[in-house]
Amino acid sequence: MVAVDHNHVLLCTQLECKTMEEMLTSMDQAKAEGANIVEFCFDSMNFTNISQVDYLINRKALPAIFSYRFNSPHGECKSNCIQVLKRALDLEAEFVEMDYEVASEMSIGEYKYNRSRSKVIVSSYVNDGKPSTEKLGDLIASMQSIGADVIKLEIAVDSINDLPPIFQMLTLCQVPLIAIAVGSRGLISQLLGPKFGGFLVYGSLGSKSVAGFPTLSSLRQVYKVENLKADTKVFGLVSNPVGHSKGPILHNHAFRHARYNGIYVPMLVDDVKEFFKTYTATDFAGFSVGIPHKEAAMACCDEVHPLAKSIGAVNTIIRRPMDGKLIGYNTDCDASISAIEDALRERQVCKGVASDTSPLAGKIFVLVGAGGAGRALAFGAKNKGARVVIFNRNYERAQALAHAVSGEALPYECLHKFYPENGMIFANASAIGMEPNSNESPLPKDALKAYELVFDAVYTPRNTRLLQEAKDVGACVVSGIEMFIRQALGQFRLFTGGLAPEVYMRNLVLEQF
Ligand code: NAP
What we know:
Blueprint: E1 10-15, H1 20-32, E2 37-41, H2 51-59, E3 64-68, H3 78-90, E4 95-99, H4 100-106, H5 108-114, E5 119-126, H6 133-145, E6 150-156, H7 164-172, E7 177-182, H8 187-191, E8 200-202, H9 216-223, E9 233-239, H10 247-257, E10 262-268, H11 272-278, E11 284-289, E12 303-304, H12 306-311, E13 316-319, E14 326-329, H13 331-350, E15 364-368, H14 372-383, E16 387-391, H15 395-404, E17 408-410, E18 424-428, E19 451-456, H16 465-472, E20 476-478, H17 480-496, H18 502-512
Parallel strand pairs: 1-2, 1-8, 2-3, 3-4, 4-5, 5-6, 6-7, 9-10, 9-11, 12-14, 15-16, 15-18, 16-17, 18-19, 19-20
Antiparallel strand pairs: 11-13, 13-14
Bound molecules: NADP nicotinamide-adenine-dinucleotide phosphate.
């Protein structure tokens, strides 16, 4: 028998295959990807003979759960189900998993009396509305009373806001508990399970992510869930969509590099107001805020940094440890403006010019875009003494922003003819040029000659058409990746209260993203 290592969190992959050969091949893959236990889902197989259980038990290279979900789309025959489960118990598989209904019928107490080595997982699918601690607690008590060694709950959720009772149950439950909130809105039930005492985490094979299940490799390499402790601080990216973000890779690696006891997870949030009302525990120590919540999240903060307040958007929220209040910041502004200033200063040094004032002071700062990034750039440039001129597809939005920064808004069609002087600054804060439209640019190449420096907030691709053409005409260029790195450094400092490992984070972004 392959031993279960109780000192490590169990990382499990559910194997749903038609044949035994496929089961064994997938098991080998799961082992190579870091699983320390697999679940043979018998209800997915073409069941021909009970000796199939013997075959898998004799050949498995990892501890295993033998499950047969009678109510699964595949599991048709109850007698097959009971035969398989009994045989797995007879052969002392490490774990045998059965539905609550089947477990009640089989009187598992008798089996357990005769056998000490198989642990029985009793599972139930909970799909009767919003989960509550009372409902889950009652169900767990009745599952425990029929002799479950481990309880598994698969819980249908509509929103990430349904998860806190599940975390509470994981903390309180007297028997080992596996709790899965089903679907992409339940993903953090897996990522944070070990922090709250969860018995096992499910990870999917390969790079294809299954909704609600992280990949095994991300559990091992990005989240390192085996390191989670009860006092690990949780940080999250509150956004929708959230799956594309590189934030988890960057922040989790940076936390580990700095030996900071934290985890950073994607949080797919629909209703941001409800989210901050629900997640009030001090475990949830800070948040990045992404599209489309940057403005609405500001209203959820107890205090907002004056710059973020004037911008009207927060991209970072910290729960202040001393009183639990939510404090909002905007690290996009400083990130983009400091990147532009540093590039201009470098140019000044090369020309032998030095000045104490901002190199943006007195310059015409042409901004395309009046969304979240545009607002951050407009306020930042204005604070440095630049004359801000805004072009935006939606002219009214440009006018509103121009009014807020005492700048000027001009119709979008006038952008390429705008040439009041040489040596201006151009900043693209619109989505133009972003993948998959990477052959687009907000300005024709010829018109770029009027600019000393061109900045592009777009960072996918890293070298946009705008930047390539600006370089061709001799302008200094600053990439959105520099803004991305700097806003992440700012967030890291706010999250941890310490210095960010700048060289490490910069190299990670430049090498891996
Ligand atoms: P947002 O709030 O949704 O604003 C989008 C802006 O792009 C609006 O001004 C919109 O104009 C404009 N726009 C979109 N599609 C357009 C098109 N086809 N033609 C002309 N204008 C168009 O988004 P955001 O957060 O400000 O992000 C804007 C860009 O900045 C994105 O590419 C984003 O990836 C990038 N960004 C980069 C960083 C970084 O760290 N480098 C950080 C934040 C954002 P309308 O008002 O007319 O709709």
